[in-house]
Amino acid sequence: MNDKLPKISVFTLGCKVNQYDTDAMLAIFEHSGFEIAEGLEFADVYVINSCAVTAEAEKKSRQSVARILKVNPNAKIFVCGCASQNNFSQFAKNNVQYISGSDGKLDFARKIVSEFKGEEEQFDKIVPDKFDISSVFEDNDGIVNLRTRHFIKVQDGCNNFCSYCLIPYVRGRSRSRTIESIERELDDVQNVAKEVVVTGINLSAYGRDNGSSLTELMKMLSKYDFAVRLGSLEVGVVSKEFLDATKGIKR
Fold this sequence. Notes:
This protein is an alpha/beta fold and 251 residues long. It has 8 helices and 9 strands. The strands form 2 sheets. Strands 2-1-3-4-5 form a 5-stranded parallel sheet, with helices on both faces. A 4-stranded mixed sheet has the order 7-6-8-9. α1 runs parallel beside α4 (105-116) and α7 (214-221) runs parallel beside α8. The chain is globular. The model has no long low-confidence stretch (mean pLDDT 91).
């Protein structure tokens, strides 16, 4: 086992859901003993959490490899996210150690930890033609970064398959986090967080796959003493029951 773990940065592109995934990965790295750098600060290891919501976002994700190598030509780079899910070969460049997809990012982070701790080999050398996406929401380990403004991901994926949108293909089908899991994370941050931002790829679809609902989520959130902000919602989910459930939430 290596005595000193390297300095690591997670370079993030894209949406609030990606930012939550990055925070969750950073919490795993920090808890495991890595020194944390921010963005394009000098580091030994970089994880690119990529985006493909637009062609420009995918281009920036691809260019981030070159930007990192300008900071540290000897950096070891790992790539995950929507752009690599869409087309992993665009990241198959020098210094890129391994490429993963949009799902299983926390498991990806744990494998990176094991790799640098000198444990058994974690990564296959052959990258598959495509990365599988689970039908189950990937829960965290109960390890979170404490901030006054806390993002919490409660939903991932989308079932809409709009003709102009890539997201269902790179994020998979809609899957929701259980109320109990959300509650555990909020219990961990409630003494620090002043505001919680509830986010998802298609937040309006929350609960449709696991028997819960946005209304039940609002009822649970009302017991906490922090302000709550919601991501974008479709107008059809804003029912009287939903609005009644939000009355107890701090603004």
